[in-house]
């Protein structure tokens, strides 16, 4: 089991039920964040005016962070221009809606209350989760997870892929007779991905290869060459170069995933604690209390 898979498994094992709004907030924690600006930006700087009403850099930052307004693959300058245009339209539309008394309806009040509650929750979860991501907590989680990851064997192998068993037998005879395996692979192999590298597949774990190939490769010791092996891709002759225990990725490589785990766990713990301390009643269609799952 890989280090990152172990982290995901540990998160699922928490078993804390999250309400829908909290789930949305969690999704946002793993979303890409806009790149930091090269220089500090004054949030009060006015970037546009609509009928005398200012639009500032702070307003633009809010729009930029809105998941509904993400613009992947759009150049930053063009994205900024589009979002400022959106904010201008937003101000104009909001003023027109106020004049039409849209904000005086019960439906608007309910939507406004929902949006306020959701924004408050998202901000609160984000604020509290950041407190959990400390260098000490990240290092401790990494060390504990690394200890729990079982050693996984890898092999580095070369292969020659041909179409028929007869071709494979001839190739095996040549390399077992002393010819250089890489040279024969470059000459005969039909695998475009490894042919130019002398059939070198690099290091791989057993689960990354189709079963007949993997079974044969992991039975060999370094330096040994297999008899022809049939898979869905054709016939293989395999030579194992090295065997090793798969190294655990370094703390630096895993830091982003560790931080994300700490944030999400803190959010789950927070919501779970709020539920535990609250009196929650749910009603069925007839107005009767529904028994709550513990």
Characterization of this structure:
This protein is α+β, with helices and mostly antiparallel strands. The protein folds into two domains: 3-34 and 41-144 and 254-290, no CATH class; 153-245, Chitinase A, domain 3. The chain is built from ten helices and eight strands. It has helices at residues 3-12, 20-29, 57-65, 76-99, 106-132, 135-148, 165-176, 181-188, 211-219, 251-276, and strands spanning 46-50, 53-56, 153-162, 200-205, 229-231, 234-245, 282-283, 289-290. The strands form three sheets. The protein has a four-stranded antiparallel β-sheet, sandwiched between helices. Strands 1-2 form a two-stranded antiparallel ribbon. Helix 1 runs parallel beside helix 10 (251-276), helix 2 crosses helix 5 and helix 3 crosses helix 4 (76-99). Residues 152-242 form the PpiC domain.
């Amino acid at each position: 089991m890989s280090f990152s898979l172990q982290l995901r498994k540990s998160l699922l094992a928490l078993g804390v039920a999250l309400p829908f709004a909290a789930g949305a907030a969690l999704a946002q924690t793993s979303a890409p964040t806009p790149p930091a600006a090269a220089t500090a930006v004054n949030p009060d700087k006015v970037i546009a005016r609509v009928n005398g009403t200012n639009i500032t850099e702070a307003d633009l930052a809010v729009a930029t962070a809105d998941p509904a307004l993400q613009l992947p693959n759009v150049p930053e300058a063009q994205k900024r221009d589009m979002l400022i245009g959106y904010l201008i339209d937003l101000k104009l539309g909001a003023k027109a809606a106020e004049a039409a008394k849209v904000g005086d309806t019960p439906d608007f009040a309910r939507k406004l209350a929902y949006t306020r509650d959701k924004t408050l929750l998202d901000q609160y979860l984000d604020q509290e989760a950041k407190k959990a991501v400390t260098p000490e907590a990240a290092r401790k989680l990494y060390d504990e997870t690394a200890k729990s990851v079982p050693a996984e064997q890898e092999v580095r192998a070369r292969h020659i892929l041909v179409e028929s068993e007869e071709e494979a037998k001839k190739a095996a005879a040549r390399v077992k007779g002393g010819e250089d395996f890489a040279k024969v692979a470059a000459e005969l192999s039909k695998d475009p991905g490894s042919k130019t590298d002398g059939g070198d597949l690099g290091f791989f774990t057993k689960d990354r290869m189709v079963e007949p190939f993997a079974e044969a490769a992991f039975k060999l010791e370094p330096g040994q060459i297999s008899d022809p092996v049939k898979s869905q891709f054709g016939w293989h002759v395999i030579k194992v170069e090295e065997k090793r225990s798969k190294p655990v990725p370094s703390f630096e490589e895993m830091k982003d995933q560790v931080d994300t785990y700490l944030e999400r766990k803190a959010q789950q713990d927070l919501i779970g604690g709020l539920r535990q301390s609250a009196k929650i009643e749910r009603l069925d269609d007839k107005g009767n209390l529904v028994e709550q799952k513990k």
